[in-house]
Structure formats: structure tokens, C-alpha cells
Design a protein that fits this description.
By secondary structure, the protein is mainly β. Helix content is 5%, strand content 52%. It contains 2 helices and 28 strands. The strands form 6 sheets. Strands 22-23-24-25-9-28-27-26 form an 8-stranded mixed beta sheet, with no helix packed on it. Strands 2-8-7-4-5 form a 5-stranded mixed beta sheet, with no helix packed on it. The longest helix has 10 residues. The protein is elongated, with a radius of gyration of 23 Å.
């Protein structure tokens, strides 16, 4: 997939919000006016705010907030997460006060950098594994696979492809992403609204958790303290490592719009690398803001694996801290690629 096509797809996914809130416009004496086209603005730009007062009320004061953050009427947009926010104005007039709202979308201020890769090594991968999650721990590769009746949790010697340990999920479960933290393996299921917790050494299932705020389970990774989760939208959720409750999220955006279908995740040196479902590209994301900082085009790799009727797209990215290299594979691919990534 060329970078031009990739960004065309990104551009088509941009959600444009109309200026003002229709409900409030009918019932309120005021409405919010901004200089942002379609109420969409980029980081670093100045947002000019005012209140439309068609009934000529005597206004004493106005205060503004983006989400929970107070802003001035001429506010430089910075230090805010990307995505959709509620812009609020509290208007004090005569002996009354009125709160009005509209929606504001914040984009990144720079386009993502384009990255390419060099193949360092190729290793065998089970051609029947519908890869959903991939992660290294102490030099051993752990993998979660999907499909009803075929979902598994696996532990392999990545160099030889030898299967070291395997358990099958029940046929009612569709396996998804996995991550390893504090000697536990965490594995998602897709639409069953449940994740499983296993003992790292024995693969014994020792617990489970529900998703709560999100509807589906797609990808998992962690930074050593926090677990990150995708649900097939443009959100990356942060999970409490003790309770597994979804506590917050960032929305993933470029300078042109949001990116949906975020799938398998990997945390690499302070950034989140994310597969996109049905795409052979990987995003490099700032986990604090949700900004897409880079795009890696891995589309040529699919032509290097055995072509067969069940062959599907790239999915599965893992960082091996021992070799300090990245490994990628795909759904029903017979190869695991060790790669070096570099900016074009």
C-alpha cells in the first residue's frame, strides 16, 4: 500500500463536526462562535472564541473550557489530547447564568513521518495461526490466535518455530491480543467481553476480567506499569494493572483526521506501535496525546510468504529487548520477519 493511498484512507475517515450544538441553539439565548472551520483545529493554532448574543442580553462575564481545562477567549491549543472535546461557555448575564456547549476536534499539527524497513532475518511461523497478539518475554515468543474453535495461547522458540506450550480456548471464544506483566499473561477475546489471566510459567488460568466501557477486545500491550487496550475504534484505553478496569483513553489522530480499526499493539521505547485491521501498515503513536508520529509500510512482506486461500493481512508486531529488533508476521503467514525500521 503506497503512502499516498494510506493517507487518502486516513483523510476519508475524518469526522467533521458542524459548528454549534443544534439542541442548545434552539433553547439557549446564546451560541458559541469559533474561528475553527467545522470546529476542527490543530495543535499550535489559536482558537478565537466568542458568544453569539442575538437577543442582546447584557453579558457580565464569559468563561470557557475545553473538556475540564479552562481557556481564554484567544487560546493557543497545546498540551491537550487529540480528538473530540466538549467546548463549554458559561455566560453570566443580568441575574442569570447559562451554560452552552459545542463540539471541538483537535488534530495533530504535523504529518506522520514515513518509515521503511530492512529484513534482518526470516523465521518459521505456523501457517495455521490466525495471529492476534504477539509479544516477547525473556527471549521467548508468546502468541494469541483467533477464530472460533481455533483460538489458542502459544509459547514458541521463535528461531525454530518449535511449540513449547499451547492451550486451546473454548470454542465459544475468539482469541485476540495479549500482553505479559508481573509474571501474568493477559489475553483478550473479541466479542465475548471477557479477558483471561494466566500464570506465565504454567499457563494455568488464574482469573478473568470484563471490559466495562468498551464493547470489544482487539489488542494489548504494556509499558511495565500500565496496560493499553484497543477495541476496534480509534481509542487506546489505559487499564488499571490491578483491577484491569478501563480508566481512561486517548484518541488516535493524524493532522487530517482519526484512525479507526486499531488492532494489535506493542510498546517500544516510549511509543505504541499499532496494527490497523485490514491494512499492512503500522502506526507509531504517542501514548500521551494519541498523535500518529510515524507510519511503517509493511505491505511488501505479504508477497514473501506462502500464498494460500486463507492468507490474510499483516497482524502481529513484537519487540525483542534482547536483540533490540522488531518482529512482524500476519494472519496465517508461514514466516516471522525480524526487521530494522528507519525513516525514509
Amino acid at each position: 500500500m503506497s503512502s499516498t493511498k494510506f493517507f487518502t484512507i486516513i483523510g476519508l475517515s475524518l469526522l467533521l463536526w458542524s459548528c454549534g450544538d443544534t439542541k442548545n441553539a434552539k433553547t439557549s439565548s446564546f451560541s458559541i462562535t469559533t474561528n475553527a472551520k467545522n470546529n476542527t483545529i490543530a495543535l499550535g493554532e489559536t482558537l478565537n472564541l466568542s458568544v453569539n448574543n442575538p437577543k442582546n442580553k447584557t453579558i457580565n462575564s464569559i468563561s470557557y473550557k475545553i473538556g475540564t481545562v479552562s481557556v481564554k477567549e484567544n487560546a493557543e491549543i497545546k498540551n491537550l489530547p487529540l480528538g473530540e472535546h466538549i467546548l463549554t461557555a458559561v455566560v453570566n448575564y443580568d441575574n442569570s447564568s447559562e451554560e452552552i456547549t459545542t463540539k471541538l476536534t483537535i488534530l495533530n499539527d504535523v504529518a506522520p513521518k514515513i518509515y521503511s524497513y530492512k529484513i534482518l532475518n526470516e523465521y518459521p511461523h505456523d501457517i495455521t495461526s490466525y495471529t492476534q497478539g504477539l509479544e516477547f518475554h525473556n527471549g521467548i515468543l508468546y502468541e494469541s490466535t483467533g477464530q472460533y474453535g481455533k483460538s489458542k495461547l502459544r509459547k514458541t522458540d521463535y528461531k525454530t518455530g518449535e511449540l513449547l506450550k499451547n492451550i486451546d480456548l473454548g470454542s465459544q471464544y475468539f482469541g485476540e491480543g495479549l500482553t505479559i506483566l508481573n509474571n501474568n499473561i493477559y489475553q483478550l477475546t473479541w466479542k465475548e467481553n471477557i479477558g483471561f489471566i494466566y500464570d506465565l510459567e504454567t499457563f494455568e488460568r488464574i482469573g478473568s476480567f470484563n471490559y466495562g466501557k468498551s464493547k470489544e477486545g482487539w489488542g494489548l500491550c504494556n509499558d511495565g506499569k500500565i496496560i493499553y487496550k484497543t477495541d476496534g475504534t480509534n481509542k487506546i484505553w489505559t487499564l488499571n494493572p490491578t483491577t484491569l478496569a478501563e480508566e481512561n483513553f486517548v484518541e488516535v489522530y493524524t493532522n487530517t483526521g482519526k484512525i479507526d480499526n486499531l488492532n494489535e499493539l506493542e510498546y517500544i521505547e516510549g511509543k505504541i506501535y499499532a496494527n490497523i485491521y485490514q491494512r499492512n501498515g503500522v502506526l507509531i503513536i504517542d501514548p500521551k496525546s494519541g498523535a500518529v508520529e510515524g507510519v511503517i509500510d509493511f505491505s511488501p512482506l505479504q508477497k514473501l510468504v506462502t500464498q494460500h486461500p486463507n492468507l490474510d493481512v499483516l497482524n502481529g508486531i513484537a519487540y525483542n529487548p534482547t536483540t533490540k529488533t522488531i518482529f512482524v508476521t500476519g494472519k496465517d503467514w508461514d514466516k516471522l520477519f525480524e526487521v530494522e525500521v528507519f525513516e525514509k
